[in-house]
Amino acid sequence: MNTEKIKMTRQRMVILETLEKSHIHPTADELYELVRKKIPHISLATVYRNLESLSEAGLVRKLEFAGCQKRFDITTSDHHHIRCLGCGAVEDIPCDCTKDTFSDIDKKTDYEVVGFHLEFTGYCPRCAGKMARKNKREK
């Protein structure tokens, strides 16, 4: 983790450590609740401000999904996510989709492609199971 781009305060270190231990891609609110266990007097505004700074410094990845709260990921390398339409959970997915896969887009449009955002959605096993049980009861 390259922390040379930003001054590492105790608050930022705890936020990064907490995010690193979390595998849920938490929202700022969820992360705030986790960080408060180590720094009880930290404010939500401080967590938001530090997440923005850490994101700008490239130490965390901000995930923005249409119609949803921003989530944060400690893994900043290119990778993709899947979001549950039921509970909102977000997980990493193994996918070899790269910019090369979409390289002919600029040939088919007048755009110079500089990046892309690929969002997968579906139902996690827990929500899919709930839906199946609900459908079974309704029959």
Structure in words:
The protein is built from 5 helices and 5 strands. By secondary structure, the protein is of the alpha+beta class. The chain folds into 2 domains: 77 residues, Winged helix-like DNA-binding domain superfamily/Winged helix DNA-binding domain (Arc Repressor Mutant, subunit A, Orthogonal Bundle); 62 residues, Dna Ligase, domain 1. Strands 4-3-5 form a 3-stranded mixed sheet, with no helix packed on it. Strands 1-2 form a two-stranded antiparallel sheet. Helix 2 packs across helix 3. The model has no long low-confidence stretch (mean pLDDT 86).
This entry's quaternary arrangement is single chain
Question: What's the arrangement of strands in the largest beta sheet?
Answer: 4-3-5
Could you name the ranges where pLDDT drops below 50 across 5 or more consecutive residues?
Answer: none
CATH superfamily of the largest domain: Winged helix-like DNA-binding domain superfamily/Winged helix DNA-binding domain
